[in-house]
Amino acid sequence: MTVSETTRRQAQVLIFDADDTLWENNVVFERVIDDFLEWLDHPTLDRAEIRMILDDIERANAVAHGYGSKVFLRSLAECLERLRERPATDAERKEIDRLSMALVEHRVELMPGVADALDELAGRYDLLLLTKGDRAEQQRKLDACGLLHHFRAAHIVAEKTVETYRWLVREHGFDPSGAWMIGNSPKSDILPARAAGLNAVFIPNENTWVLEDDELDPTDAGVLRLAAFRDLLRHF
Q1: Distance between CA 208 and CA 184 in Å, rounded?
Q2: Which tens digit of pLDDT belongs to each residue from 157-167?
Q3: Rg over CA atoms, the chain
Q4: What's the pLDDT tens digit per position in 137-154?
Q5: Collapsing DSSP states into helix, strand and coil, what is residue 135?
Q6: Terminal CA-to-CA distance of the chain, rounded, Å?
Q7: DSSP 178
């Protein structure tokens, strides 16, 4: 079930996620993980088993320390130490740093159709940006993306919860029923926004971090599912 055309025409505010919605992000982390697993070459555990251990470590560290490359590197080191049952050596930490250089050197690569779609949407709606993660790291990407002029405001938060969206509604004074949260993460973009009374647009990304996955109600009329970012122009 999709949202009625009448409801879409009543939209006033569009709120955009950043990582893996406006630009690629997690795919770079996945490449580092692939290199890490190949380098680790555990004698008894296969890659899938090691990945499950790493996912558990990342899940715990996200709660305790937040997001971003520094926390990710911490997780890699802890994974190595757990598997080898000893502290990482200086040489091993240097190798992890070397593997992760792709994170530091990665340039912001916009998703296909993002720049043109925002050009059009900014002329019709009030646009906001809401991203989570390490503040300095996210700000670097925002400064480099070349898109900030489209948004009335851009917010970096530690986590996206129901209360985050309620705060956003209060901060900007809009009616949540006329607002749409647009993103790739069921856990951070869709479910908490819906719980706060906003509508949502789900644009899946095959490289979305596994910890951002969650079940969506297929009968929820407040969620519009699109295949690509440029498809927004057919609905808004």
Answers
A1: 7
A2: 999 999 999 99
A3: 19
A4: 999 999 999 999 999 999
A5: helix
A6: 17
A7: G
